Amino acid sequence: MNPWRRAFLYGAVLLFITAAVPPTAWGAVTAEDAQSAVKTCGKCHKDYIDKWLPTKHGQVFTKNPSSESMVMGCQACHGDGTRHMTDAKAKSEPGSAPVDKSLIVGLSKDSPLTPGEIRAICLNCHFGTKGMTHWAGSSHEAANLSCIDCHQRKLAAAPVKLTPQLRRLPEQVNVATEVCVNCHMDKRSAMMRSSHMPLREGKMTCVDCHEPHGGKGPANLRQASVNENCYSCHAEKRGPLLWEHPPVRENCGNCHNPHGSNYESLLKMKQPYLCQTCHNANYHPSTLYNGSGLPVNAGAAKQQIYRGCVNCHMQVHGSNHPSGPRFTR
Amino acid sequence: MNSLYFSPGAGRKNPERAGMIVGAPLWLFAALLVTLTLAAWPQAALAEGELEGEITLGAQNVDIDHVSAHYGKFNGIDDKGTFLVGELELEFDRDLFYLELEGKDLGLDSRSIKLEFGSLGGYEVTLKFDQSPWLISSDAKTIYEGDGTADLTLPAGFTPGNYTGDMVDQLSSAARDIKLRVDRKTTSAEFEIPLGMFMVEVRYSSDKRDGTRPVIGALGTSGGNNRAVDLPGPVDYTTNDMSIALFWRSENAFAKLDFEASTFDNANEYLIWDNPFPTTVSGVNYPTRGKTSLPPSNTYQRFGLAGGLNDLPLNTSLSLNVDSATSKQNNDLADYSYNANSTVATPLPRSGAEAQIDVMNYAIKANSKPVDKLNVALEFRSYTTDNKTPMDTFIYIPLDSGVAQDGIDGGHALNNLPVDHSKTDMKADLAYTLAPATILKVGYLNQTVERSYREVAKTIEDKVNAGITHNFGVGNLRVNYASSSRKIDGHYEEAAVYDAYHTPEYVHGQNPVTAFDDHPLMRKYDIAARDRITTGATVGVWPSATFCGTLSYTAIEDKYGESEMGLTSSKGSSVTADVTVRPDKHLALFAFYTLDSMTAEQASRYYRGGGSKITMFDDPNNDWWATHEDKTPTIGLGAMVVLMDDKLDIGAYYSVSDSSTAITLTGNSGVGDITAMPDLKTKLTSIDVTAKYRFSDALTFGLGYAMETYTADNWSLDDVEPASDAIREVITMVPQESDFTANKAMVFIVWSLGK
Prior knowledge:
Radius of gyration of chain A: 28 Å
Shape of chain A: elongated
Radius of gyration of chain B: 31 Å
Number of helices of chain B: 7
Distance between the termini of chain A: 31 Å
Largest sheet of chain A: none
Number of helices of chain A: 14
Structural class of chain B: mainly beta
Largest interface: A-B, 131 and 219 residues
Distance between the termini of chain B: 37 Å
Strand content of chain B: over 45%
Oligomer: heterodimer
């Protein structure tokens, strides 16, 4: 079936199902309830609330709460505040003992909660939402990361290690990229190499390829395989082709290093040596190309200089020409 | 200005669809929308605090000492000049309605604009327009006319020569400047709406790429007599993607059903070009014109189902996904040869490519905490391709040469191989809390890969890993170690490919001893037996709120113990020291140093074909080895300073990436004299300083300065001049990588609204 027809067919089915199921609210909740709850906390934490209210969380909680937990306002994440309020009131006089912070759920970097407990709070609302469908068992969950290791809530007293408030790369680099390289430091240096994807220039971020909350592919890739991930931008490589180059069809990463390289086109090694790690047929594929005639002069081998092997085998990603089995047409 | 199409497959190939042009670029539409928004609501909106954001306007002047595509590779700046600085970030909200408009690089060819609006907690619409230039070369030269089209011709009166040296004057006089660049424009729209426990998401994007890029035209019948010419080939791609997804979610379960369809349309699937070399060189026939294939138009569709369960027994959560995808391509096949002198006795076995690959992917992952101190993560993943492309024998004509077609028993009678692979992963990771701040981790992975039409039918890899993390209050420590062994199930058999690739008639005619293409001792590294050791250690310390330091080391070491030829070993490592000091909110200093290293060793053996093959292929006197050593130290320094009662912000960044590659060659006596290879070097240095002074809550004045220098020593490109006789057999088009120093000065004003 034509893919577009199929798309519209599936779309129609989905819309039918959607329309057939009556909208189900999570409960009878009102914005007034949430605003009231937040206002209570704001009596003591005015600065905090003032910063929080314009955030997306603040806006949704106080204007259109969609779950019973949201109506609880701050308590949705920080837990029941009754004992905390009682304690704080009792100690409101100057010279009183410090407020017992253990009576409220703190979510700052020095929170006593474990990463898993913090995740559980966030997952109360974000479980199964868009982007979170592969979280369970993902590498970041297995690494015991907590949501606030990466996500700033715009108001926390941020430690120096990680915060978009303290940009440690030039402004054109996307914040998401900066957050990732805080831990994946080898990727920061890789993207500064002469051959790199446009992360330094801000035209791309790590999350264009990787889904940090768990991807369906290896290494948290958004697509099911390395190649499908690459095809999402390089559809011209998708084929399929009449003459396939087998390792290319299986994994672009066999020859390319997507995070950055010292060689043209993100290649892992310099041609012709890269090609010769797999090919040594008789004559030129098995020839040792040495420094004779370099830098380029009339004595240098054409298989070694300019585009190397690709001087002739330019269809290295596969060919659709019936005379292209050697990837030259 | 290019038109944007909302029609799948729009373009020259489907002119009837190309009529479905729906309008101007999105950014124009968005700009209009925001103008109307601002015009309609500004006073009231500003007064009520409904509209806020920032608009940045200014100018930047770029001065480059040498025109270089390397500088403007992704922003389109390929020469000195003055450019508009334009950024905007606006947010408007009234009751539940919100609108956000974001624009970046509005004065450059890399501009993007995003408009998002919706109802809080309700529907959301996102419209995006993005331009991404890709500069390949700003100072290329070509002798061809018609660049960027599918038909390239030589200038009138051009006389072919055997070698480039025989055409020096012509190449010089005919060469004209050409810019090699591809401009990508992507328009996308997304809509999502929650409907109770459901949510529907619809996405559409259209990606249009136009420009000129190098395409090699090759000639000759073997590596010994070939010629090549770098051609300015056309890029006229249109990719349309559409997806629809339905999400369902309850408190402890979710499901996602989605469908995705994509079409890629290339307006030019072949490139035809004049041959600048003679039609006969040393008895070898070359064509008058050549025909080279370009990426074929294709389609892709995928159906997916994902789901998850939470709060299962033993504190278990579960997620799974199933995807079924199909890629198709059925472009008309060209004739075996564009050369009328080629004698084709056996016609093509079919008229179209009829290529199709189906993919089935499924994965199930679980995370469980059966007891308080133990976390268990399990994963099963399977990815299988089913290549349905028919397998036929094609008796090809090499490079449009005017030769008679082989018979079915000839070396040019080859079968297209519908390669497949199937990968299955089974993984288990356990984390046990030894002490409140100490976690011990162990894991196991089994990966089985089965492949068709490869030298190895099946590989099995077993990996064990262990690690420990410890938080010690003012820091943490992470140590990881993994050991894996990939084994071949059966034997590595070059014949498995050779026998399938060639016809039985050809194979039967060969001496069984020399019936191979790649040497039987060659082991292709992606399927070779391999032992891998992965190590990593990270120490982070933050003794106070003002200091943070990290020392990190990672390494992957591979040994291909059964590979006498091919890649025999490799080791990559990266060590980083990273420090941030923030004595108070007015000052932050940071620095890092990373040393990336890579060492790879390969082995091979030189041998000739024909009658020499049987004596040479087995002669270790012709063995040779290459060792590659990459070192790339990268340094980054930065500072942020806030002065003058928080009114002046200064940010300064410096980075340098300085790579070098040494290739050391050795060989036995039969290889002959070996001249040492020059090193490859690249060095990229960047300085970026920005100062912003806030006159008032509404107005900020800014100055910026940036410098970037790039130098390269590249033995494959140095001294190569375009359209010259630098290489005897290759007419080049792109010069050596351009060293440059670029200085950029910027002045801008930021207008803050709603403050």
